[in-house]
Amino acid sequence: MMPESRDVRDLYQDMILEHSKRPENFYRLPDANRKAEGFNPLCGDHFTIFLKFDNDTVTDISFEGSGCAISKASASMMTARLKGKSKSEAQQLFAQFQRLVTNQTNKADDETALGKLVVFSGVCEFPVRVKCAILAWHAMMSALDQTSAAVSTE
Ligand code: ZN
Q1: Sign of the C-alpha dihedral computed for residues 27, 31, 32 and 37 taken in this order
Q2: 1.10.357.10, 3.90.1010.10, 3.90.25.10, 3.50.50.60: which CATH number matches 6-148?
Q3: Which of 90, 91, 115, 134 has the fewest CB atoms within 10 Å, measured from its CB?
Q4: Model-level pTM?
Q5: From ligand 1's centre to the CA of 69, what distance in Å?
Q6: Which residues of the chain have pLDDT under 70?
Q7: What's the gap in Å between 118 CA and the centre of ligand 1?
């Protein structure tokens, strides 16, 4: 992991820290029918996303792996947000989250849809950390499209 500067620590809001310490859905989903790996070589974040996808619905989702607090919290909160969503809803949330962390968001609409995920809005000021925040989302999209190869943020 990268050394953490004071500026980066300032990013770590309570919710991000909480999710990184006690992530939700942090286990290998035993009956997953789709999975994908994500690797961020800049930081060393490496996660596998497990999906149970039936009848156009993410009926269950989990993740395993290791990474910095932002990448782990993002994966945790993403899994909590996506459970029960259709593929198109998941794709829409991915697009909204991507706009949020790259500061291209139409804030009102996207922030309503993203809910608690807006805690990552400060990440846009730290380009290196954007890759940490978006990593699990890229892996999730890869799993949804069932391209089984590992994804990289590079
Ligand atoms: Zn990271």
Answers
A1: positive
A2: 3.90.1010.10
A3: 115
A4: 0.86
A5: 7
A6: 1-12, 105-107, 147-154
A7: 18
